Amino acid sequence: MDERAVTGWWRTSLVRIEPGEIALRGYPIEQLIGAVTFPQTIWLLLKGELPSREQAALLEAALVAAVDHGPQAPSIAAARMAATCGLGLNNAVATGVNLLGDVHGGAGQQAMAMYEEIRSSELPLADAVRDYRSRHRYLPGFGHRFHPRDPRRDPLLGLVRAAVADGTVGGEYLAVAEEIERQLGPVPMNIDGATAVIYAELGFPPELGRGLFVLSRSVGILAHAWEEKQSGTRIKGPLPRPLLPTYTGPALRDL
Ligand SMILES: CC(C)(COP(=O)(O)OP(=O)(O)OC[C@H]1O[C@@H](n2cnc3c(N)ncnc32)[C@H](O)[C@@H]1OP(=O)(O)O)[C@@H](O)C(=O)NCCC(=O)NCCS
User: Fold this and answer.
1) What is the structure's pLDDT at 7?
2) Is the C-beta atom of 147 inside 6 A of ligand 1?
3) How many angstroms is it from 103 CA to the middle of ligand 1?
4) Alpha-carbon torsion, ordered 164, 34, 13, 45, to 10 deg
């Protein structure tokens, strides 16, 4: 078989690997190390070019904000349980990440899709939001089970407003999110709605927004899995030992 037919089987524009050479998007790794930040590297790989310092700072703020939300979150709890079962740390992290889906951890991607649908509507903004609300009872990225006001909302939106003011981002998605919030009245934007504004303003498609959230939350999942592993607890289930889940089947009966 022609050698090019084999080497062309996998194609990538991300990284050039030769003996003694690693280059990300054309930049030698030895020039990147020490010169660019981790968020800049994420951007470079996902988008192909390096971001400006301001773009990278906004991306980093979103990544920091979503890093952890405590062991009551199913993904974190699952990772901690996995860590007590004798798995390696990588398996424990994967267990947590695998729980992030459309319902748990999916609101950011859904909010990005919603913002885009409203932004691209031909209706005036307020009407486009009203139209969307008439078709959807719950809007992703707004409201929270136990934070009356998500403490991450204000600093994130403050950074987006500053980025609009200095021309780093355009502000169209921020305007959509703020109009939704205005119409929802007392239901404020949550972490997913606010980070969705950032990822959309920075030009990421919704699915990559989910990917970036997973990258961010993976840090928390790793730290929780490590903490639980350090405790030395073995086989920790979802309830403290003396408690059992409620049984709802038939009463004991003879065969
Ligand atoms: C998170 C969530 C489940 C919290 O729900 P909750 O605590 O049960 O809130 P409630 O249903 O008590 O909401 C109170 C009122 O606000 C409204 N509301 C809450 N979140 C809303 C939302 N996202 N969109 C529209 N209305 C919302 C409810 O309709 C309700 O109105 P009503 O009293 O007229 O019926 C809900 O806000 C939601 O589904 N949000 C979207 C998903 C999301 O962003 N999840 C990520 C959270 S970090």
Assistant:
1) 85
2) no
3) 13
4) -40
